[in-house]
Amino acid sequence: MAVSNQSDLAETSRLEAFSDGVFAIAITLLVLELHAPVLSEGRRLWPALLHEWPQFAAYLASFAVLGIMWVNHHSMFRQIERTDRGLMFLNLFLLLWVTLLPFPTSMFAEHLKDESINAHVAAAVYSTNLTLAAIAFSLIWWYVLRNHLVEHQLTKAQLRKSVLRYSLGTLFYAAMIGISFLSAKVTLLIAFLLAMYYAFEQLRTRD
Amino acid sequence: MAVSNQSDLAETSRLEAFSDGVFAIAITLLVLELHAPVLSEGRRLWPALLHEWPQFAAYLASFAVLGIMWVNHHSMFRQIERTDRGLMFLNLFLLLWVTLLPFPTSMFAEHLKDESINAHVAAAVYSTNLTLAAIAFSLIWWYVLRNHLVEHQLTKAQLRKSVLRYSLGTLFYAAMIGISFLSAKVTLLIAFLLAMYYAFEQLRTRD
Amino acid sequence: MAVSNQSDLAETSRLEAFSDGVFAIAITLLVLELHAPVLSEGRRLWPALLHEWPQFAAYLASFAVLGIMWVNHHSMFRQIERTDRGLMFLNLFLLLWVTLLPFPTSMFAEHLKDESINAHVAAAVYSTNLTLAAIAFSLIWWYVLRNHLVEHQLTKAQLRKSVLRYSLGTLFYAAMIGISFLSAKVTLLIAFLLAMYYAFEQLRTRD
Amino acid sequence: MAVSNQSDLAETSRLEAFSDGVFAIAITLLVLELHAPVLSEGRRLWPALLHEWPQFAAYLASFAVLGIMWVNHHSMFRQIERTDRGLMFLNLFLLLWVTLLPFPTSMFAEHLKDESINAHVAAAVYSTNLTLAAIAFSLIWWYVLRNHLVEHQLTKAQLRKSVLRYSLGTLFYAAMIGISFLSAKVTLLIAFLLAMYYAFEQLRTRD
C-alpha cells in the first residue's frame, strides 16, 4: 500500500504526459490571439505595432505565468509517488484554468488601454483566472498530503513550508483582483513580476 | 498468444500517447470558440460578458465531458493488455467524435438562447456527437472482450457489469437527443451533470 | 553497427513522439475549418447545416486520410530499428504535407459545389498534397531499406511487396490529380475510399 | 554528482517531451495563418492562389526553421545528461521565440510584396525573432557547459567547435536583420537557405 508499484507509476506518468500536453498547447495557442495591425493605405507598420503593445505585454505575462505553472506542476508531481481518481479530477480542475487563460489574456489586452471601467473588469477577470489556478494547486497539494500520495522523505518543516508557499501564492493572486480596480496596467505588471519571482525563488531554494 | 510481449506493450503505449495528444488538444482548442464581447462605444464589459453566459456554460460542459472521457479512456486502456489494428481503427472512430466536439459546442452556445427550433436542433446535434462517442466506447470494449485483449483477472461479474455500464452510458446520451427537443438548456445541464455523475461514480467504485 | 543500442532506440522514440504530436495536432486542427452556418433572421439551422455538407465530407475524408497515415507511420516505424539525421529530415518532409492538409481541405470544401473550373483546381491541389505525402512515405521506406535501418527478419519477398505497396499508393494518389479535372466530388469520394481500403487491407494482411 | 541518476533522467525526458510538444504545436499552427483566396464572382482560383505565393513561401521557410530547430534541440539534449531549474527557464526562453514565430511569419507574408518600408520592417521583426531564438540556443549551450550538465566524453576541440557553431548561427541571424532593410524577399530566401544549410551540414558532420 505504501510502496508504489509499476502500474501506479505508469498512471502518474500518463497523467503528467496529458498535463504536459495541455500546458504545451495552451502556451502555444496564446500566439493565435496576436493579430498583425490592419493598416489603411500609406500607414506605417512600425508605429502601428508599437501602438499594439498591450497584446505583446499580455502575451509575455501569460507565457511567463503558464511557463512557471508548468515548472511548478513538474516539481509537484516529482514529489507525488502515486495517483488516484481524486487527484486526476483535481488535476482536471487545474487544467480547466490553464486552458481558459488565452481567453482572459486576449480580453485583457483588448481593454488594457481603455479609460473606462472595462479595463478594470478585464484585469479582474484575468486575475480571477490566475487565482482559481492557484487555488487548484493548493487543493492538489492538500489532497496528496492528506492521502499520503507523496514521498516519505519530506520532513514536517518541509511540509509546513510547502503548504504555506501554496497558500501565500493564492493570497497574492487574490490580492491582484483588488489591484485590478486600481490599475489594469499595474495588475499586468504584477502578474509578470510574480511569475519572475517564483522563477528565481525556485532557482535559489530548490536546486 | 496470451502473454503480452514487449512490442505489443510498446504499441499500446503509442496508441495511448496519440490518444492523449488528441484529447489534450481537443480540450484546449475549446477556448478558441470563446470570443470576448464586441462592445460599441460606451458599452460596459461586465454585463456584456454575463449576457454571453451560454458560451461559458457550453465550454464548461464540453471541458467536463472531454475530461471524463479522457479519464475513462485511461481506465479502459489500463485493462487492455494488447492491441491490434482493429482496436486502432475503433480508437480512431472514437477520436473522430472527440476532435469534432468543439464544433457542435460552439454552435450550441450560439443558439442556446434562440426562441426558435434552432436551439433544439443545435442541442440535438451536440447530443448526437456525445452519443456517437459513447457508442465508440461501447464498441471498443466489446471488441477487446471478444478478442481477449484484456487482462485475465476480470471475473464474469466484473465483465457483465462493465458491459452494462457502457451500454447504459450510450442510452443516457441517446436520451439526451430526445430531451433536446424539449429544452436546449436542460440538455446542456444534463450533459454537465452526467459528466459529474461519472466522475463521482468512478471515484467511489474504482479506487 | 548493425545492433541498435540504447541511444539509437531513444532517438527513434523521440522521433515517433514528435511525429505523433504533429499527427494528433493536425487531425484535431481540422475542426477549426468547420464553421457553423451564419443564419439571417428567421432562417432555420438544420437545412443550412445540410447545405454545408461539403465541409463535413471534406472533414471526414481528411480525418480518415490522416488517421490511416498515422497508423501507417506507426507500422513503418515499428519495423525501423535505428534512425539517423537523413531519416529525421525525410520524416520532416512527410510532416510538412501532414501539417499542410487542413489548408487544401478547407479550400476543397469551399469550392466543392462550384460549377466552374475552381472546383477542379481545389480538388487537384488537395490530391497533390496527398500525392506528395505518399511520395514522402515511399522515400522514407526506400531510404531505410538502402541504409539498413530496418529489422533483419524481413524476407526478400516481404521487402519487394512493401516497396510495391508504397509505389502503388503513390500512383493511386497521383491518378487522383487527373480525376480532379473530371469531377471534384468523385475525387473526394476516392480519397475517402482509398483511406478505407488501406484500413481494411491492413486489418486483413498484417495481423 | 557526475553520474546521472534515475530521477535526473526522468526530469530531462519530461523537459524534452514538453519541448517536443511545443515544437510540434508551433509547426502545425503555422497552417492556421494560411488563408484560401476570397474570390469575387467569376474569378479563378488558380491565379489567385499563385498571387498569394508569399504566404506559402513564408510557411515553407518557417516550417524549415522550426524543423531544423527541433532537430537541433534534439541533438543538443542528447548530449545533456542532467537538468536543473536554470536550464528549465532558459529552455522556456527559447520556447517563447518558438511559439511566437507564427505571428511574425504571418505578418511577413502579408507585407512581403509591399513597396513601402513596411516590407522591411516585417522582415526585420521576423529576423529578430530568429535571432532571439539563436541567442537562446547559445545561452542554453553556454549554461550546460558551465554547469557541467553535458556528457564527459566531449573533447576540448569538440567543445570549442560547438560554441563557435552556436555563436556563428547567432551572427548569421543577426545579419539577417540588416539584410531586411535591403530586401524583404532576399531575407526570406536566406532564412530558408540557412535552415537547409544547417540540415545538410548536420547530415554531413554528425552521423
Your description of this structure?
Four copies of one chain form a homotetramer. In chain A, 78% of the residues lie in helices and 0% in strands. Chain A is built from eight helices and no strands. The first copy, chain A, has helices spanning 6-29, 45-51, 53-79, 85-100, 102-111, 117-146, 156-180, 184-206. Chains in contact: A-B, A-D, B-C, C-D. Chain A binds chain B through residues 7, 10-11, 14, 17-18, 21-22, 25-26, 29, 32, 84-86, 88-89, 92, 95-96, 99-103, 106-107, 110-111, 116-118, 121-122, 125, and chain B through 16-17, 20-21, 23-25, 27-32, 34, 36, 39, 42, 44-46, 49, 59-60, 63, 67, 70-71, 74, 78, 199, 202-203, 206-207.
- Uncertain segments of chain A are 1-9
What does the overall shape of chain A look like? elongated
Strand content of chain A: under 5%
Helix/strand class of chain A? mainly alpha
Number of helices of chain A: 8
Helix content of chain A: over 70%
- How many domains of chain A? 1
Mean model confidence by pLDDT of chain A: 87
Biggest interface reads:
A-B, 35 and 34 residues
